[in-house]
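ok here's LanC-like protein 1:
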Amino acid sequence: MDSSVSQPLSPNAKYHFKNEYDDYTENNAKPHIENHTVSATTKITSKLIKKWESTLDEVENWTSTDSTVYTGTAGVGLLFFRKAPNDTQNLRNIRKKYLQLEQLKNRRITFLCGDAGPLSLAAVISYKLEDKKIFDFCIRKLMAFVKVVKSTEGELPNEYLYGRAGFLFALLYVNKHVSPPPFAESVIRSIVSAILFSGQKTAKNLKMDKDWPLMFEWHSSKYLGAAHGLSGIIYLLLQARQYLTEEELTTIIKPTIASLSKTRFPTGNFPSSIGAGKDKYVQWCHGAPGFLYMYCEAYRAFGDTHYLYAAEKCADVIWFRGIVKKGYSLCHGVAGNAYCFLEMFQTTKHEAMRPTVWKVVYADVPTQKLLTSEVTQVNNDNGSFFFKPSAYQGTCRATLLSGYGSENVHPSIFEFRR
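and the structure:
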């Protein structure tokens, strides 16, 4: 994307295909910039629209005992919710077929991998349907988790997939879509406080607090990526910034981002954890794609352009190394990387005359290629290593990329952004 940046290919190029598309220049981007969109009649977009429609048909009757957003039926429900969020029949169908409230196990508490995901979506849908009984049931169930999540005793992690940050997102998600918001400021603040306390305590116990105001461990590793690590936790705290004090933002969040920035490899990518010396992964869960969201949110929060420049460097890495060989998925596949360009566009589109806007409009065209023949071939060669219809491990949310160009569908990063 940045013509001044040479291709930062890692010694582990076996993890990704080479991007054969020309980098951005004013001349080769001009046809797309003038239209400000990708025409629904172009060959690549037509193929993706067909894939979008066929995926909807495929998943409509999918059944699974997995009720989560990450790999289960709630993720399919989220897809249909994004497609038609105000269609009454669609909402009823989602709640009946995909949310499986009766199968929830009261075990995991996060939006992606636990009960909080289907409960949050069911709460929002029930609010839209004016079904007070089920809405109240969902809110009560979510509130029942608060005591455990806000406690700093025990072994509950803080990361996004299985920990406090994932539960925090669930509360923020419901509060965004429901009026008046059902979760009080004090409730959300209690979760934020638990995350901050845990991160400060871990940094101190590890004798890292001089450079790292916050540090977290998951399975004895100090992960940095979006799924299990520090950048994902910081992103969620930035989304909840109205519940943090100015002092916390200044003395905890900003310095932690600064320390994260110092871990960047010379290629522009980031390690998966502290001490991980190999520059391997360019995917949402580990590497530059997850960091991109943190930097974009930091730019929104603080207005400092150096965060935006840091996000652009992440986008450059994704441009060159983002056509990964792991399949379609959002978590560690090409779809998660393609969404990064939409995030950059959403972040920069209000900046008058900012060249990045046009770079990302241009980038939107080739990034749709991420969902076509090359990746399909990898999937066919290596078998069914992904959960085919699911939101994070399969094709379900990947094809939502095609929907935004042809229908009234505006995807955010797999609900990572509220």
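+1. Residues 185-205 form the longest helix (21 residues).
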